[in-house]
Structures
1.
Amino acid sequence: MDMTLSKRGDYVMRSAISLARSFEVGTHRKIREVVAETEVPQTFASQILADLVRSGLATSKAGRDGGYRLARPPAEISVLEVIEAAEGPLRSERCALGEGPCRWEAVCPLHETWSQATATLRELLSRTTLAEVAARDAAIEAGTYAVPADAHRSHPVAVDVADVVQVELSEGALDLALTRVTSVLGALAAAAVEDGAAGLESVTPRSRRRSARVDEVSLVQVGPSSRDGEPARYLLVWQLAGSVPGSHLEAEVSLVALDAERSELRVEGTWRQDPDNGLLLAGPELERRARRTLRAFLRRLARALEEQPASSRRPPSPRSTALP
């Protein structure tokens, strides 16, 4: 049974923790500051923070000194409030052993037990404050937090990843450039692993790091070309070994035109760590490493695409036809 938060719940909790850790400063936090600290995708950040505002847990302010701030001190906000701001009311929507709501004529034998379990979880979350969670987050960041005995370190973990990067190329030019950058993908991926590990010494000490070895990396077109009038799609796959931990990424890359000279690369997929290749990371650490590495890879890829000679980026002109 999966007891984790949804992706939206994850992002809302991360954002709330970020606002809690800065609450005593007394100023509003910009979206870019929350994104930099939490690694919530830039494209979702405004929606996530809006969830906190709509629930009354945060306030927003426009202008140079504007941004977002908790509406109450973190010690007065419960974890339950934050979770419900993203997930909705924490209660069973249907019978534990059925597909519909509980009815007396078809009462479920697990009804009382399930109801008590839900009530116990709600009670625990309601008496755990955002201040407590923020303090734990600070201790984990400082490397002083004791790893729980039941931490998820004993088995492989897969996490969903998604990110977006802008490229100063038209959609057609970008589509063409992607077909000509394959020779440097391995170097970009290996360098991105180093970027992703930077600043995470508390998770993987520098003495235990090893240089990444690229066993496989490919970018294959799986959708129509941009010249067909539809967004082009590619499949990005890599297998990296030697790093801590080794990783396997499988993601779809789509091209979206912003205007005549700019486009976006949107990436969405799954990142898995290799259980036979180095130290396994727990879920939160793995997710943070995966996001940092993917972000670093996309930035490096965008630079490589933009730095290609203009002649190699120009879409081929239509073949002329001689008049009779």
2.
Amino acid sequence: MTTPANPEQLSQILASASPSRLGGKWRWMAAVMLVLAGVLAWLFLKQGNEGAALRYLSEPVVRGNLTVTVSATGNLQPTNQVDVGSELSGTVQSVFVDDNSRVKKGQELARLDVSRLNDQIAKSRAALVAAEASVKQAEATALEARANLGRFQEVDRLSAGKVPSKAEMATGEANLARAQASLASAHAAVTQARATLSSDATNLAKASIRSPINGVVLLRRVEPGQTVAASLQAPVLFTLAEDLAQMELQVNVDEADVGQVRAGQPASFSVDAWPNRKYPANIKRVRFGSQTTDGVVSYLTVLQVDNSDLSLRPGMTATAEITTTARENVLLVPNAALRFSPPTKPKADSGGIISMLMPRMPRGSSQRAPNGGKNGGKNGGKNGGTAGFKQIWIPRDGQAQAIKVKVGVSNGRQTEILEGRLEAGTQVITDSEAAK
């Protein structure tokens, strides 16, 4: 049985329930109510935003021409460039041409000092004269040996073989054979002396450095008085271009684009010297051999260039645009329409605000857009298992409606439509935004 509180205990309880403690509890409860009100307001605003309508941005389908190009950079070169050097060592005596000089085939460009070569030719001519004199001497010796042998044979016939002796006959025959061998050796010495003289004459001719082609001197690398050393390899003295009216543009085509490039395709290029001018060109050949620079694989492609006005110069850097595909009067859609996919909305929860406060499982990949992750990638990709088909969305009664189309080539900004229920002027969705 509980004992009733006495007046002293009641006074202590009332004293413990002071106004300050009661006020702290009320402030705490007020703070909790404010936080709860803020959360509820945020949830209501979120529901309002999710329910806001979307506004679709669109562009029309157009009919026009589509050109696909491949860009490449390279340098201009002459169609035939020749480095002219010297096969002989010596001192350059004279130089007869300069840079930009026009030359003809066989024209003398420079000349070496030929004093030593002239001395060698004189020595060779003297050796030839001496060899020819030796031939005459050998002929006389052979004639004498033949006469002696004939006399021995006549005596032997008249004496019925008694005289001369067999030893004398053998000596006569040996002398004749020896004389004939000496004569053959003398003739060989003459041939050798003539060859030496001819070689010295050839060297004398090579001392005059002549142009092998009709063309223009691009570069002169020699001056009078300069010593030329041709012991290991022929030094380059002049660089000639055969015809600057016809040139080549050698560009490096990336391995990703080389499959689209082939001989005969048209191209255009520009150079820094004439930035507002486009030069026409045609692909002459695409080399099969590759070259690697800083880890990048490319293939050398040669373009034929007409330079009749001589405005282009060898070595100029040029940027070429190679036309790989050209389509006329085709349906074109912006690539943004191929990349667009309408946003998906989560299903409404039946629990209202209470369910929004409860934890949820993460959404799976089934709530992605119908077009998948990469719509509008490479042309001819697969969509839904059908090669070359993609989905394009058009606005219909405020909603996005999907249309399947077959795409062709693309230039990076527009894509050709081969099949599909699209006409010129049809609006296709390229993006969306929340309606204001």
3.
Amino acid sequence: MDNIVLNVRSVDDKKVTDHHALIITENPAKDISGDDKTIYEMVAGRMLEAFSQKCVKDATTIALTCGDTVFETKGSTMKQTGWRAVFNEKEEKDDEESNLPNLSEGEQLPVLQAYVLEKQTKPKPLHTEASLLSAMESAGKEVENEAEREAMKESGIGTPATRAAIIETLFARDYIRREKKSLLPTDKGLAVYDIVKDKRIADVAMTGNWENALAKIESGEMDTNTFRQATEVYTRQITTELLNTSIAVTDNNACDCPKCKSGKVIFYPKVAKCNNADCGLMVFRNRSEKELSDKQITDLLATGKTAVIKGFKSKGGKSFDAALKFDADYNVVFDFPEKKGKK
């Protein structure tokens, strides 16, 4: 690695697009230390790995049958280190899986111990931008139809050049927001998801259908006009489906909007919001670390003010009591009770 000459050139006069990679120059990396040296060696090492020989392993899978249950264990033996030798990277594996005994097919083994281990599954972690990009790239894995899944194997949702723009659109439309490295859906994003999740426009198999059709066009099995006509029919169908979609409003989950007088304020898990797009009235449930109940929000919408609510927290962590009310612009503000003995 000492003989690698690598430097990353900044591009001031040209816009770096999604398709640009690191630009290698002839300038040697001299007099670097600390974090700069670490990053340099990481980049140089990855470059060497890209042009190194492949890593070759012998992989073994043993299937053991006990009653009606099949147990599997896997192991591997390194034959050629290849690109792993650049960083002297060791294979990530469990010791129990790597040291498999010599067994022959049909051999019977004694059962030494049996027990039931009860666990609870954990929810999937929140997406980061990197994991969301990866999920978009491998979206075809979620498609049940084998032909569509195979067609999407090399495509996924979007292209390498457009996936980043799709995520930025989600930010721009306030469907998701950043919280440190994680991506959190907003109430608006969750509401849109609830509306379209069962619609054809949200079916990832649509991309698989198109990719499958394009593959047939390439092989001469389908005519381009047939694909065009099918696309037009599909576009009309999803447009009609969306235009006919309405949000169900019940008396228990909505109130008349005091601001626009024509819309309905719909209650969501984290916000109560008028369904009139031109109104904009919104009441967040969480206020100064206090979660508002449906009744408190209903009182605010119906009378313009709540009763005194106990347990608000200031930025300094002090607890205080106050009512909530609308100001002249229908923003929610505190209304502090008068202290006894004061005019």
4.
Amino acid sequence: MLDTTLIVLCAGNSTRFALEPKKQWIRCNDEPLWLYVTKKLESYQSFAKIIIVAHEEELKYMKNFNDEYIYVAGGDERQNSMANGLQKVTSKYVMVTDVARCCVPKEVIENLFKHRDMADCIVPYLSSTDTVVYESETLNREEIKLIQTPQLSDTVKLQEAMNQKKLFTDDSSAIKSIGGSVFYIKGSSKSIKLTFGEELSKISCLPTPSKDFFVGTGIDIHPFENGKKMFLGGVEIESSFGFKAHSDGDVLIHSLIDALLGACGAGDIGEFFPDTDPKYKGVDSKILLQEIVKFVKNVGFSIVNVDVSILAQVPKINPYKVQIKKSLSILLGLPSYKINIKATTGEELGFVGRSEGVVVQTAVNLKYYDWSL
């Protein structure tokens, strides 16, 4: 229905999710869950707009997957994220779903639209098959409704409801609080909500991650600067000079960061940590690497191995190889045998051979985190 906008909420931090990636980034074949869910709903109905509400740090990366959707930064609470998304809605109706509700059957969506004129908010629900006790009182389970998403609402009514300071866990309760009407339809037991990760064994609609590997390379060059400490791979190197750079100049870590970002298609180090930003002046590059490793794992990847080539006339690298491997092992959460460090000189050729600076080239392999194991 072209007078309806779809909002997909996926801005959460997945704090209850027991697996390594954020739930919205687990892979279904090659697609992250948020894209898989959105495309599935899009195949059921035609929407005037599709709005993805996501974590601010992931918005740019998400656009790699589909640049036709509208991407909006989420808030600290579901309701804040909702309000942000609703600012972009101009259609009469809006259908809101949580990305965690990843296997909603087509008939539920059709039923929502079939009844959309029955109330301000149309809500799928399940009946309770168990006895329900609230504060020692047994409730009539025939009157219990287990609320699901997506929910289809009158846009103006939902916008009004979401502008309240009180927090609500779903659209219908917010609309009811301002006197709006709610109509309930039967939901589906297939609409399992992915919360802790253990639900994946019960969800049959999701394809498992592809077995592809992703190669990334990074290269960085820094000249020397007298009177500055030298760091390589997070290890302090005994030297009377360090690297000229906006940060601490750890050329190895900078090369590694670019390799990681290259493998997952997320740009380069300057896009994440611009050298025009004063907060990165003199920053410890280990902190930057930790942020990138967290990002790479959050968006659904596992690190397979790392291979580093250091081109330096000075200083001598061999005495520090073991320390560098140990340092990178900790920073990457990777066994040291999956990290290789190679070093060679410039044979007195070029700026490296003249002892003016160092070049480091790094290759990494990534794969999708396999949640099916």
